[in-house]
Amino acid sequence: MANHLRLWTTDLAEGRGPRFDELAMTHSVPLFRTLPGCVGAVFARSETKGYVLTAWTDAAAAEEASKAPPYREAVQFIARSGVMAGSQSLEPLTIAAGFSLPEMAAMFSLSRA
Question: For position 1, what pLDDT does the model report?
Fold first, then answer.
């Protein structure tokens, strides 16, 4: 069960939202599925900002994953893609409460991965 979240936010370069979506599906989703302790990830965006919310078994798993070579390589690849602009932030969060319906899981079906 997840008890730790991380919210990463970035400014997007103008007109690069669709590329953010593409990179999420082709690089980030496959990567996060392989990282020990990662139990889920959601990628979202507006026209000007990109968001990645990841769920982890604990803070230590998230910290270890951020040091893993595949993670670092993916970060460098995305940075070179021209998607990001301006500032970025990473905020660790502790889950206070929540719920999930089966409909939410269906939103992230394997057919989209």
Answer: 67
